[in-house]
Design brief:
Shape of chain A: globular
Number of strands of chain B: 7
Distance between the termini of chain A: 15 Å
Largest sheet of chain B: 5 strands, mixed, barrel
Number of helices of chain A: 4
CATH topology of chain B: OB fold (Dihydrolipoamide Acetyltransferase, E2P)
CATH class of chain B: Mainly Beta
Structural class of chain B: mainly beta
CATH class of chain A: Mainly Beta
Helix content of chain B: under 10%
Largest interface: A-B, 46 and 38 residues
Oligomer: heterodimer
CATH architecture of chain A: Beta Barrel
Distance between the termini of chain B: 42 Å
Radius of gyration of chain A: 17 Å
Order of helices and strands of chain B: EHEEEHEEE
CATH superfamily of chain A: Calycin beta-barrel core domain
Number of strands of chain A: 11
């Protein structure tokens, strides 16, 4: 399954059971920190961070974007993980958040990827670059602040082919605006690829009756990926 | 590095334009299909693939000259289709349906499905 973690919901529950915390979709706040658990779907699906262009690309990145063919070069065509932040921004399938005191786990139905946000620790040293990077989180009031580094350069920032390097650094501020609405505010920084930080926001709606389903991308994938 | 985060950020605005309300689909359908155009075809179901990452309907469609064109109609992922009311037995060989959706940019007989209309007039959308 190529560098990919596939976890069943049961496995995630078992992981969190090692460090249980109050969870549930019925209360906006449970215990001392807000409850953001539940199944969430992007409110509006727009694959591109800059639908009208204008991303602050460094010259080489601008050239790379111009020479990228979305019909054949999207790693997602090979069922490879979207990575962060694309994973959170432009995937039109639901994600489920499981919340514990030492980790917040996000299972995404698309590509069945598990994202781990480690609470209360610093980034590991000498990180081996990965698709999802190394995410560490902390609560600031009602907001989960997630800092992620340690990325490989094999993903796009969004569905519009925006490139990045291993210097990518993503900070997310995730909070429950109200019972049915989750907001993730992104600050995306990669000075090797962009002339200034990019900020973006994604809004998710609670899907209280939904469960995460199996999604085996390789089953009948008819698309061809040219850049491996 | 952290202190620079809030300096002169470029703001990405999520404009919703033509994709709002469109089918939830996985692979780069925006690249392959002309989302600004809609076509309607009427044909006979040859097969129905209930598979990820996309379900497919294969239709035999008679063109104006009476020749049969083999159409491939692409849908979204199974879980999202199921949430929209689709099932693995929604279609079977021989069903006569009308398919409405976005045609392939390259002119091949392919479509990104918006909805189907059954012979009895009932409609089923591929979007939520």
């Amino acid at each position: 399954m190529r560098n990919r973690l596939i976890f069943s919901a049961a496995a995630v529950v078992a992981m969190l059971a090692l460090s249980p915390a109050p969870r549930g979709q019925d209360a906006a706040h449970t215990g001392s920190v807000p409850d953001i658990s539940g199944v969430w779907l992007v409110e509006k699906f727009e694959p591109r961070l800059f639908p009208n262009g204008g991303a602050p690309l460094q010259p080489w990145a601008e050239m790379k974007l111009k020479t990228t063919n979305p019909q054949t070069d999207d790693p997602n065509l090979a069922c490879l993980p979207e990575g962060v932040p694309r994973f959170m921004i432009s995937v039109p399938y639901p994600m489920e958040i499981f919340q514990g005191p030492t980790r917040v786990l996000i299972i995404h139905e698309g590509t069945s990827v598990l994202r781990q946000i480690h609470m209360g620790r610093q980034h590991s040293k000498d990180l081996d670059p990965t698709y999802a990077g190394d995410s560490v989180g902390k609560w600031e009031g009602d907001t989960l602040v997630v800092d992620t580094i340690g990325f490989n350069d094999k993903t796009w920032l969004d569905g519009g082919a925006l490139p990045h390097t291993e210097a990518l650094h993503v900070v997310e501020r995730i909070r429950r605006r109200n019972h049915d609405t989750l907001v993730d505010e992104f600050t995306i920084e990669d000075p090797m690829a962009y002339t200034k930080p990019i900020t973006a926001q994604q809004v998710y709606k609670l899907k209280p009756d939904w469960e995460i389903h199996e999604y085996v991308c390789e089953e009948n994938n008819k698309y061809t990926y040219q850049r491996k | 590095m952290r202190n620079k985060l809030l300096v002169f950020p470029a703001t990405a605005i999520f404009l919703l334009l033509s994709l709002e309300g469109s089918t939830f689909a996985h692979h780069g359908f925006v690249s392959w299909f002309d989302m600004s155009r809609s076509v309607t075809i009427k044909g006979t179901v040859m097969s129905y693939d209930w598979t990820n990452p996309h379900a497919y309907i294969y239709l035999d469609v008679k063109n104006e000259k009476g020749a049969v064109e083999k159409w491939s109609v692409e849908l979204g992922a199974l879980a999202m289709l199921a949430r929209a009311g689709w099932r693995r037995d929604t279609l079977k060989y021989g069903d006569e349906i009308t398919a409405i959706g976005n045609p392939a940019k390259d002119g091949k007989p392919m479509m990104h499905l918006d909805k189907i209309v059954f012979a009895n007039g009932q409609e089923l959308s591929s979007a939520l």
